[in-house]
Design goal:
Number of helices of chain A: 13
Largest interface: A-B, 112 and 114 residues
Largest sheet of chain A: none
CATH superfamily of chain A: MetI-like
Helix content of chain B: 55-70%
Largest sheet of chain B: none
Number of strands of chain A: 0
Oligomer: heterodimer
Number of domains of chain A: 1
Distance between the termini of chain A: 49 Å
Radius of gyration of chain B: 27 Å
Number of strands of chain B: 0
CATH superfamily of the largest domain in chain B: MetI-like
Structural class of chain A: mainly alpha
Shape of chain B: flat
Low-confidence stretches of chain B: 1-32, 332-336
CATH topology of chain A: MetI-like fold
Number of domains of chain B: 2
Mean pLDDT of chain A: 87
CATH architecture of the largest domain in chain B: Orthogonal Bundle
CATH class of the largest domain in chain B: Mainly Alpha
Order of helices and strands of chain A: HHHHHHHHHHHHH
Strand content of chain B: under 5%
CATH topology of the largest domain in chain B: MetI-like fold
CATH architecture of chain A: Orthogonal Bundle
Helix content of chain A: over 70%
Shape of chain A: globular
Number of helices of chain B: 16
């Protein structure tokens, strides 16, 4: 084999390896979509069909009836989490990046450590604390709990962004007589738009995809996010797989849409958040 | 950094400059306008930070402290509404040490975490290296590799439960079709396999994170360094081991650390996939703590186990803070 032939063969081998990896990565999503269109008979036949077999919309009919309200609930929770995260994180990140406060080191350390705290630790206590302050089974309660995923991350990512903002920009606004709040509101926030959008998307997805807090701080039937709705389908012996797959498809769609929209921010946002801290 | 300071990094930095200009005058009189501006700015900064501090106190500090209190109490369904319960001493911790399921959950958490990290790192690093080569399809591969993130965790668990089913599961079907298994494997209900199945699902879930972080680190390795090594006649393995790995080591450390933190937290996946079963063999600390607190209503025992988990997770926090020191140093104004 000549050098050229060998390097060409090597390139195709790389393509093949990537293809194999993508099959493994994408197959579960494919299986959800195909499964959501299969009839109960097919799903319980004891055979797995690699291609759609006797497609039907029955599952979607069932799920739209049973889960529409839950999808709405998840939207409220996701939007609420995003809103809370922005209200808390944007000014805090600005303060931590641009003001020399004595508490900065303490707060930044606390945020780094907060990202490490497992949710179950918080959930157990929050359940009882929420009982005490009447937040069990309420939207604000669930949103405050879901903020524990979003807020530390949001502050650290936004802070990394604000470091890149030249001080001259704020200085110019101050010279023009703008108050600290006006400078923040009219100058800084608009400049940080892309970072703010990224953080909002991440926070929405945290609220949308949350399961552990929905499972613990909600214990009624009046507020049921889609994640909890899917979980209740998982019976021990007779899981209605068609309904599970159709609701899973519902749970994936908005997340996928938002991630595609925000895709170019994600890699940079994530690396900034985790490596730069 | 020095430039940024003179350009007007607000607050304390402004003070020495003002003080210098006013040298000789008494402290109260110096730079009156400067002082008020500085105070006003410090007040504004504090107000900007206030909601975050309140949130951290209510949603992190309070629950963590309360969890400690709870772990020394003898709570029951009747005590939930009253915030305090009879003092129990170390009874809950003694229970955790004696309870076979709790001990097994702790051991399994270690095994699960170690297995996940090894699998995620090896596969993730290999793929990150693959994507640094030039070949048709690498761009689309790099984009689509993040798909596991599109899915809420509970959905991932549900899908893997579907794929690993005993009868009619895609995995068994594939293994039997290619002749690797003669009869269906009971991935989810065989006590020897349930945790392994969860491990496979978790590796699938975590690989994209490793690929993304390691790939972006590999992109930062200067081309000249790689070329110089090539000129010196270093083979691919030598280049990797002696040149590339040492350069990206800091990122590898952070990635593994974050991977550790993510993995000790795993909950949704197990609940959906195996529910901790069969016979509690796939319970991890998180899921067993949930079981103790929310299904057996022994909040004290659950809280004690939570503290074991918290200590385990926080063991890495000094390391994490050390690795994030660039960010912290920036906050204390030393600069890089």
């Amino acid at each position: 084999m000549t050098r050229l032939q060998r390097s060409r063969a090597l390139r195709w081998l790389c393509t093949l390896a990537t293809l194999a990896a993508l099959v493994v990565v994408l197959f579960p999503v494919y299986a959800v979509v195909v499964g959501s269109f299969e009839s109960t008979d097919t799903l319980f036949s004891g055979n797995y069909y690699w291609l759609p077999h006797a497609a039907t919309l029955d599952n979607y009919r069932t799920v739209i009836q049973a889960q529409s309200g839950n999808v709405l609930t998840s939207l409220i929770v996701g939007l609420g989490t995003a809103l809370l995260a922005l209200v808390v994180a944007v000014p805090a990140a600005y303060a931590l990046a641009k003001y020399r406060l004595k508490v900065t080191v303490v707060i930044v350390s606390a945020l780094l450590v907060a990202q490490i705290v497992p949710s179950i630790v918080l959930a157990t206590s929050l359940f009882i604390i929420f009982h005490w302050v009447h937040l069990v089974n309420t939207y604000p309660g669930l949103i405050i709990a879901d903020g524990t995923y979003a807020i530390p991350f949001a502050i650290l990512v936004l802070r990394a962004f604000f470091f890149g903002l030249p001080n001259e920009v704020m200085q110019a606004a101050r010279v023009d007589g703008a108050s600290e709040w006006q400078t923040f509101r009219r100058i800084v926030v608009p400049l940080a738009r892309s970072a703010v959008i990224t953080v909002a998307v991440f926070s929405f997805l945290n609220g949308w995809g949350d399961f552990i807090f929905a499972l613990t701080v909600l214990n009624g039937t009046n507020i049921v996010p889609i994640t909890l709705g899917i979980y209740t389908y998982l019976g021990n012996y007779s899981t209605d797989w068609g309904a599970v797959m159709a609701s899973a498809a519902f749970a994936i769609v908005p997340a996928a849409v938002m991630l595609v929209i925000a895709q170019r921010y994600i890699a940079s946002g994530l690396t900034a958040g985790s490596v730069v801290g | 950094m020095a430039q940024a300071d003179t350009a007007g990094e607000v607050g304390a930095r402004a003070l020495p400059a003002d003080a210098g200009r006013q040298a000789g005058s008494a402290p109260p009189a110096r730079a009156r306008r400067g002082m008020t501006t500085w105070r006003r700015q410090r007040l504004a900064g504090s107000l900007f930070l206030a909601p975050a501090i309140l949130y951290l106190l209510f949603a992190f500090a309070l629950p963590i402290i309360y969890n400690v209190i709870l772990s020394f109490e003898n709570s029951s369904p009747a005590t939930i509404s009253s915030l305090t319960a009879p003092f129990a001493g170390f009874a809950n911790y003694r229970f955790i040490l004696d309870d076979p399921t709790s001990r097994q959950a702790i051991v399994h958490t270690f095994e699960f975490t170690a297995g996940s990290l090894v699998g995620q790192f090896v596969i993730g690093f290999a793929m990150a290296l693959l994507f640094t080569l030039r070949f048709p399809g690498r761009a689309i591969g790099r984009t689509l590799i993040i798909v596991p993130w599109l899915l809420p965790l509970i959905v991932t668990g549900v899908i893997f439960k579907f794929l690993f089913q005993l009868e009619g599961g895609a995995v068994n079907q594939l293994l039997m079709n290619v002749g690797l298994a003669h009869r269906p494997i009971d991935w989810l209900d065989d006590p020897h396999l349930a945790l392994l199945t969860a491990l496979i699902a978790n590796i699938w879930l975590g690989v994209p994170f490793f690929v993304l972080l390691l790939y972006s680190a590999l992109q930062e390795v200067p081309v000249e360094v790689k070329e110089a090594a090539l000129m010196d006649g270093a083979g691919p393995w030598q280049r990797l081991r002696l040149i590339i790995v040492p350069i990206i080591l800091p990122v590898i450390e952070v990635t593994l650390l974050l991977g550790f933190v993510f993995t000790v937290k795993v909950f949704d996946l197990i609940i959906a996939l195996t529910g901790g079963g069969p016979a509690n063999v796939s319970q991890l600390i998180t899921t067993w703590s949930y079981n103790l607190s929310f299904q057996q209503f022994s909040f004290g025992e659950g809280a004690a186990l939570n503290n074991v988990l918290l200590v385990l997770a926080l063991i890495c926090s000094p390391l994490y803070l050390l690795l994030s020191r660039g960010s912290l140093r920036r906050s204390s104004g030393e600069g890089k």
